[in-house]
């Protein structure tokens, strides 16, 4: 049976291959179109993914060799180099840089996948391969959506990625949510997801948190799981909201969108 690390690395490969095929069909004018990421054109999203792959690869290689993860100055130099590229160079560079990262993950043997610890440079302590790969998958899958939705407003996050990322949403709410936008109003909602199915509570109060499904909810959110995932990272604008999303209770969908401003 494959491990979470195996499944996540497989999802990184699937996402890479799909996005590379998509980017291969884009012309110069396509690369400068608006993306689903606020204030970024398509090529800038690809630049972000390419530079992120380079930085992640450096951390992975440092962990394998026992060396120190390059610091903030290294990251800044990588970003500056990518920012200076033309749109076509950013697209081509993404393909090469992300391929190297995915191949490095794929080359890890089962023991290394289970035992290696990676210092990502911004967390209190090193993490295992599954966690490192999942964090990259979260970044990759959402930015893949940013690229694709620039051409198709009905685009969705890949089902393979959603299944691996869905149950980690709660741990990220402290960084991805803003309870203050409701002006002190509180609500406890039932959240009912489909594909895959989940049932839990969303408490909106002094902080935003996931709970067990409430016995007496103030309202209910019903949504495809991938739409919920996008909501929590600010990617469920009205033009990108499937008809299957339904919300009842004292909080409107626009207000709920404001709780999750995204990044």
UniProtKB/TrEMBL annotation:
All residue ranges annotated as the Mycothiol-dependent maleylpyruvate isomerase metal-binding domain in the record: 13-148
Keyword NADP attributed: no
GO terms, molecular function: isomerase activity
Transmembrane segments: none
Domain of life, per lineage: Bacteria
A Pfam family assignment: MDMPI_N
UniProt keyword annotations, A-Z: Isomerase
Identification of the protein by name: Maleylpyruvate isomerase family mycothiol-dependent enzyme
Organism annotation: Micromonospora musae
């Amino acid at each position: 049976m494959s491990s979470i690390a195996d499944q996540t690395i497989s999802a990184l490969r699937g996402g890479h291959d799909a996005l590379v095929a998509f980017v291969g069909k884009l012309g110069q004018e396509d690369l400068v179109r608006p993306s689903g990421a606020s204030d970024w054109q398509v090529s800038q999203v690809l630049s972000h993914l390419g530079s992120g792959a380079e930085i992640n690869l450096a951390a992975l290689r440092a962990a394998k060799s026992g060396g120190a993860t390059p610091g903030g100055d290294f990251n800044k130099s990588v970003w500056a180099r990518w920012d200076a590229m033309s749109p076509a160079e950013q697209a081509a560079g993404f393909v090469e840089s992300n391929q190297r990262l995915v191949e490095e993950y794929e080359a890890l043997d089962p023991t290394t996948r289970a035992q290696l610890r990676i210092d990502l440079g911004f967390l209190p302590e090193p993490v295992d391969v599954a966690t490192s790969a999942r964090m990259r998958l979260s970044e990759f899958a959402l930015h893949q959506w940013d690229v694709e939705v620039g051409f198709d407003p009905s685009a969705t996050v890949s089902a393979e990625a959603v299944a691996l990322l869905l149950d980690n949403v709660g741990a990220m709410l402290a960084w991805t949510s803003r309870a203050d936008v409701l002006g002190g109003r509180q609500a406890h909602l039932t959240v009912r997801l489909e594909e895959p199915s989940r049932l839990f509570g969303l408490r909106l109060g002094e902080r935003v948190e996931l709970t067990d499904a409430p016995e007496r909810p103030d309202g209910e959110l019903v949504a495809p799981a991938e739409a919920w995932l996008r909501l929590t990272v600010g990617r469920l604008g009205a033009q990108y909201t499937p008809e299957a999303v339904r919300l009842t209770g004292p909080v409107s969908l626009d207000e709920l969108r404001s709780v999750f401003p995204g990044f």
